[in-house]
Amino acid sequence: MILASVFAARTRGSLIPVVSTAAMVTAGTLLLAACSAPSTPSGTTSALNPGTTTFTSASAPRIPNVTGRVLTGGKLSLASYRGHVTVLNFWGSWCTVCREEAPALSAAARHFGPAGVQFIGVDVQDNTASAEAYMKDFKIGYPSLSDSSDQIALEFSQVIPVTAFPSTLIISRNQRITGRIIGNASASNLSNLIQKAQKQP
């Protein structure tokens, strides 16, 4: 299930419904439409993992030149990760599905780190205290960019719906997107997409 801020207000880390059932159905329909928006580049969708798409070398979108503030301080540029397979995960401490997938991402970062695979988070619609607690709880050691106003998410709007969290992108060494997961990123799915990206020049 894909969560969006239109469904809930966040108070002290909990989700409190603020819309009627009819409104939720309408919003859900709009989200599904956003997921299949024509502006999103097409690729091969997995039958076993419907939220997963792989891109060929010819169709792989190039990542935007994004620089942002890291939650722990300082700045980070995605361009500096050129030459490394990179996993870019959009998350929020308020997002239930993000919490479900966090252990798999944390484990994958530890497993693939020695091979040079880099992991970066993008913390959306969040506050620093909640985000830092989330990273501590799930033992996430890789950096996350702060994106409280969705500016970084908007930079990727041609690849992922800006209302779809969590979303994960697998980026090749030449900074093209080779895989995309909209929704829960499982350990096996992450491993499969990372290994495919590692095989590319």
Protein model, in words:
It is a single chain. This protein is of the alpha+beta class and 201 residues long. The chain has one domain (5-198): 3-Layer(aba) Sandwich (Glutaredoxin). The chain is built from five helices and eleven strands; from the N terminus they run ββαβββββαβαβαββα. It has helices at 21-35, 96-112, 128-137, 151-155, 187-198, and strands at residues 8-11, 14-17, 44-45, 52-54, 67-69, 75-77, 86-91, 118-124, 144-147, 167-171, 177-182. It has a seven-stranded mixed sheet. Strands 1-2 form a two-stranded antiparallel sheet. A hairpin with a 2-residue loop joins β1 and β2.
What key attributes describe this structure?
two-stranded antiparallel ribbon, 201 residues, alpha+beta, seven-stranded mixed sheet, single chain, Glutaredoxin, 29% helix
How is this structure best summarized?
This protein has 5 helices and 11 strands; from the N terminus they run E-E-H-E-E-E-E-E-H-E-H-E-H-E-E-H.
* Residues in β-strands, percent: 15-25%
Which fold name is given in CATH as the topology?
Answer: Glutaredoxin
Helical proportion? 25-40%
Q: Tell me the number of helical segments per DSSP (H or I, 4 or more residues long).
A: 5
What overall geometry do the principal axes of the alpha carbons give?
globular
CATH architecture: 3-Layer(aba) Sandwich
Protein structure class: alpha+beta
User: Mind summarizing the main beta sheet?
Assistant: 7 strands, mixed
Overall mean confidence score, pLDDT? 81
With strands numbered from the N-terminus, the spatial order across the biggest sheet is 3-4-11-10-7-8-9
Number of strands: 11
Order of helices and strands: EEHEEEEEHEHEHEEH
CATH class label:
Alpha Beta
Distance between the termini: 34 Å
Looking at this structure, what is the CATH superfamily?
A: Glutaredoxin
Radius of gyration: 16 Å
Instruction: Indicate the low-confidence ranges by residue numbers.
Output: 1-39
Number of domains: 1
